[in-house]
Design brief:
about 140 residues; 5-stranded mixed beta sheet; 5 strands; alpha/beta
C-alpha cells in the first residue's frame, strides 16, 4: 500500500466533514497496512473546538488498541496539523505523520517556526496528494463567502 492510497482514505473522511458543513479535514491511522482508526472534523456537530480529525482518530486508535502510544502507526491527514493536534501527536509517540496540504494560517509551523513539535522519533512528510487536499479546503471556504 502507498501513501497516496491511505491519503485517499483520509480524503474520504474529509469529504464527510465537507458534506456535514464542517471544515473538511480527514484523518486515518494505519498499522501493518490496515486502517485502524478514522476521523473527520466534528467541531460543529459536537460543539467542541477540540473535535479535530486527528484528535478523533487518535482517540479511536487508543481505544481499539488499548494503548496510549502509537510508535508503530502512521497518521494520514489531509491538512497540516495545528498546534493543538501536534501536542496530542507528540504525546501519542506516533511513528509517522503524513499530511496533504500545508496550512500557513493555522498549521503547527506558524507557531513553532522551524522547531519540530512532534516526538523526536516521529517521521514527518508533507505534500502527499497536496492539490486535491488543498482544493477541497478552497471549495469549502469559497462556498461560504
Amino acid at each position: 500500500m502507498t501513501d497516496e492510497h491511505f491519503m485517499q482514505q483520509a480524503l474520504k473522511e474529509a469529504r464527510k466533514a465537507f458534506d456535514a458543513e464542517e471544515v473538511p479535514v480527514g484523518a486515518v491511522i494505519v498499522m501493518n497496512d490496515q486502517v485502524i482508526a478514522r476521523g473527520h472534523n466534528q467541531v460543529e456537530l459536537l460543539n467542541d473546538c477540540t473535535a479535530h480529525a486527528e484528535i478523533l482518530a487518535l482517540t479511536s486508535a487508543f481505544q481499539s488498541l488499548g494503548s496510549k502510544y502509537l510508535p508503530e502507526a502512521t497518521l494520514y491527514v489531509t491538512l497540516e496539523p495545528c498546534l493543538m493536534c501536534s501536542g496530542a501527536l507528540y504525546w501519542s509517540k506516533i511513528g509517522r505523520i503524513v499530511y496533504g496540504a500545508s496550512d500557513e494560517k493555522n498549521g503547527y509551523r506558524k507557531s513553532t517556526g522551524a522547531r519540530n513539535p512532534f516526538h523526536p522519533r516521529t517521521e514527518l512528510q508533507g505534500g502527499v496528494l497536496e492539490e486535491p487536499c488543498a482544493q477541497l479546503m478552497k471549495d469549502f471556504f469559497k462556498a461560504r463567502r
